[in-house]
Amino acid sequence: MSNYTKPYVEADERAEQLRSSFFAFMIMDIIILVVSVLIYIDIIPIAVGSMTTKIFDLSVLALLFLIFLGISVGSFIKLNNIKKDATKEINLTEEIIEYTVKNFNDPVNEETPEEEKYFLREESLKALITSEFKGLDDSYLEFVLETVYEELFPNN
After folding, report:
1. pLDDT tens digit string along 68-101?
2. Backbone dihedral region for residue 9 (phi beyond 0: left; psi -120 to 50: alpha; all else: beta)
3. What CA–CA distance (Å, rounded) separates 49 from 45?
4. Neighbours of 36 (CB within 10 A)
5. DSSP states of 92-104
6. Are 21 and 81 in contact (CB under 8 A)?
């Protein structure tokens, strides 16, 4: 098993991706609907003289329409849930940063080699955060560690 953690994607960014998916599939649905109507009223002649081919083509387009509509509705429902998660995530991140900035004791002293400072501080921050905020996802914890580290040590 690898010790690799997936990169964390913030809830705001996931919401934006779902919003894009929703609009893309809705646009495709509108295009399919317009093309279907144009085929049905013979403005776009798909099959000349064969009603069976026309019905088959319209059936395939109707199936695509329903699939894309399902994906659009699913994206919209997930989008509403992620918006709620984004608010919770922002509040939790702010709470973690505030707690950590108040309670962090820097383990680095003047004799600590420059190469070790980052790792010592990161270990100390991770221990502080996980002792107060239990059950954080590994990728979210890495994201918060980076954010807190930048807040505490902006020049490093």
Report:
1. 999 999 999 998 888 888 888 889 989 998 999 8
2. beta
3. 9
4. 19
5. HHHHHHHHHHHH-
6. no
